Amino acid sequence: MDKYEAVIKLLMDAVKSESGSDELTIPVGVSNRHVHLSQEDLDTLFGKGYQLTNMKELSQPGQYACKEMVTVCGPKGAIEKVRILGPVRKQTQVEILAADCFKLGRNTTPKMSGELAGTPGITLVGPKGTVETKEGLIIAQRHIHMSPSDALKFGVHDGETVKIETEGIRGGIFNNVAIRVTETSALECHLDTEEANAMGLSGSSKVTIVK
């Protein structure tokens, strides 16, 4: 164990002794398929200068679920009423579930948000038009949002991958959970609905990082 690891261990032990082990649990956020749009694609789908309607604030500061929805179309099928999340982004990103690949007839793999190079494209249909993206279709890699102070408490760093564990009748361990650290992040482990269902998790569940 080097000096850095020793310091982190001492800090974590101090947190456990002062606050109790529950302080080292992480709340779960369950995510269904959804779409992030660029302003250009939003204009094409809903009309020039269209502004998204904030329907519900999400756990991550500044992000929200919109009233607006689109249809996602692939070579073999379509999925209607896919929710848009705001605000608009520089590039359109479509996050689906693994099983959706069969319905759409378009294969993709788990990726971190924003890592879209080399990903397949997809067709989006809105009330005013259609967009065919060249890339941007992903399955979201499971990840944990946290602030720098959270990262210090848990002894992890941005870009690291960890294991998480959950209890319960369907409990178990997930590997390859990415850590995402920003100044504005709220502590939350993001899993999609397939992953959450496999472990019997909901929005009221909590997980722990396995060291």
UniProtKB/TrEMBL annotation:
It catalyses: propanoyl-CoA + phosphate = propanoyl phosphate + CoA. Signal peptide: none annotated. Its EC number is 2.3.1.222. Pathway: Polyol metabolism; 1,2-propanediol degradation. It is an enzyme of class 2 (transferase). Its cofactor is Zn(2+). Keywords: Acyltransferase, Metal-binding, Transferase, Zinc. Coiled coil: none annotated. InterPro entries: PTAC. Belongs to the PduL family. Involved in 1,2-propanediol (1,2-PD) degradation by catalyzing the conversion of propanoyl-CoA to propanoyl-phosphate. This is Phosphate propanoyltransferase. It comes from Lacrimispora defluvii.
